[in-house]
Predict the 3D structure of the following.
Amino acid sequence: MFDNLSDRLDGAFKSLTGQRTITEINIASAVKEIRRALVAADVNYKIAKDFTDRVKEKALGTENVLKSVSPGQLMTKIVQDELTALMGGQSVGINVKGKPGVVLIAGLQGSGKTTFTGKLAKYLKEKKSMKPLVVACDVYRPAAINQLTVLAEQIGVAIYKDEELKDPVTIAQNAIAHAKANSHDVVIVDTAGRLAVDEEMMNEIEAIKNGINPTEALFVVDSMTGQDAVNTAKAFNERINYDGVVLTKLDGDTRGGAALSIRFTVGKPIKFISTGEKLEQLDIFYPDRMASRILGMGDVISLVERAQQQFDEKEAKELERKIKKNKFDFNDFLKQLDQIKRMGNIKQLVGMIPGMSKAIKDIDIDDDAFNKVEAIVQSMTLEERGNPGLLDASRKRRIAYGSGNTIAEVNQFLKQFDQMRKMMHMMSKGNMPGMPGMPNARRGGRRR
Amino acid sequence: MSFFDKYFKREKKQDLDKGLEKTKTNFFGQIQRAVAGKNSVDDEVLDELEQALISSDVGLDTTVKIIERLEARVAKDKYVNTNELHSIMRSIIVELLTENKTPEYDGFELVTEHKPHIILVVGVNGVGKTTTIGKLAHQYQLQGKKVILGAGDTFRAAAVDQLKIWSERVGCDFYSKGMNTDPAAVAYETAEKAVKEEYDIAIIDTAGRLHNKLGLMRELEKIKRSIGKNEETAPHEVILVLDASTGQNAIEQCKAFLEATQVTGLALTKLDGTAKGGVVLGISDQFKIPIKFIGVGEEIDKLQVFNKTAFVESLFQGSTLV
């Protein structure tokens, strides 16, 4: 995908070697790099320009007191802080107070409104112990009502629909009356997808909003949207003055610059993000993470969280103990491999680590890459797996034969395993070999 | 104009013009402001032009390419009058569209020796795959072809129903194994039925999937293979559906789907809803796969065969600079 912004900025400053501070002169190319990075992430061009002007002003006013920090790093920090601030500082919740609370869902075709309606209903039911009623107001798209019916069934919430009536305003109003009569405390109104340029349909959504007076109107938008996000967000805002934005399909590899464009243009908070096809894959929006994502800085927090979800704490403790004692063996290795695999696509995972997305840009990391080493380990006896020291020439030959590899390949893997073991042992003692910015980095890593 | 009429009926042309209207006003409006009060194309004009291209979703790489070509032109001729910019831009855009030598399509007539001609439709979630299939089936049905649709999206709630309603609307046949069934089996059996019962065309729908989900992309490979088990040459076409309002991610989508299923053509939907038709240029420049269809409206007949000549004509017609 794209280069890490920090690397690009360092590159931009490198043209003026020896310069340790940001000046009016050397900032020009950096500003251009930032703008390009933002535009490549689908941030609206004009907004990217306004934003970089702000960053420039701030950067020139910041004195670089830390000698160890490069201008590129400092600049990146400023960019990220500004971006986070712009994305809304902290997350904002949804307002479902009222008798009943009414949530209106609006957006373009294919942005994921109906799926979000289902997810929100599930969230309110399970996390907020509410009794939601979902309402099918998309009377146009074939089977849209069926879709919501199926979703409602899956999550066990009630649905209000009227397949005879073709007027979404009346349907929505009837639904609210129905909700009152049946003690539902929140109503979620799903509407048809519409283009911002479709006058008639935009009139309709306005009429629905005026007809039901929702406590919360949400604009659902595909995170992959390009430069047009600004126009669309503005057009919907003018009509229904929504309270918040929902970003969908963030489990894709888009950088999601549209989020910044929308936030900048209409100033409305992003309230939810949707990260998968399963109905529980709905998250609260974290501005700082989104800022990192747009900048291509890696999403370390998400990576850690994902790892945590898959990680067994007891196993982790045991592993830590083993590493400290330098007892990490092939059984642990297999377990680790399995855990990594369970976390998902390797390339995507590695890409979440800052700096790595650039390093692996052109490398085709396949999940099959692990098959070979897995085969080697699995060709070992249980005894060998627990005692890596046991492996002699004869055993290696057998393993090579059993796993369909050459002896050289087995040797290469064993060597790598040995290095890895050493490195982990060292890391467990607090020395991080080869990691930049750590005090002992050089000594720890290169000593041999 | 006469050249143009040969390719396009007036009605279709109006749809296209309307579909591109927003892109046009947006793009030329910006260029116009850039050159206002200027005589020659200087750096400032080029900068503004870069902005106009990028904010039309042309994409960074293709934009840089266009600007470089323009610069080369300016350097060669020493002085380029802003009056000439319009025609130069036009020739550069024609160049970009034709360089990759993708075929030019004139109508929905299929050039195929295969019967049945089997089409697999793929894409990310919400781009309009099912709708595109409905519209496409309508076109083939109008030609008197015997068409069958295969409901391969067995995942998204009510996707099967959606395709079924389309088949009823269009008046063609429909094959399904219901929801939550194996999509590869649906694809296989649709193809089998199409062969046995001598259909002219079979179009197989698939569930939307994000291109970075390896497991789902593998599933797609399997679906494709299962079609080939009935008829070695099938699928004869793999159509990737892209949403025209998608930004730079469209390029990533193209790459991933191309790798998994050897896409033969693209369908660009919702072109009427965006001011950013520039994605047409970006994709034509970066991929050797032709854009085959464009969606320019919601009605059943608002799917068009993409014609480069018509596109350029529509984009530049009536727009002037200075």
Notes: The longest helix of chain B spans residues 10-35. Strands of chain B lie at 117-122, 147-150, 173-175, 201-204, 237-243, 265-269, 291-295, 303-305. DSSP finds twelve helices and eight strands in chain B. Residues 1-7 of chain B have pLDDT under 50 and may be disordered.
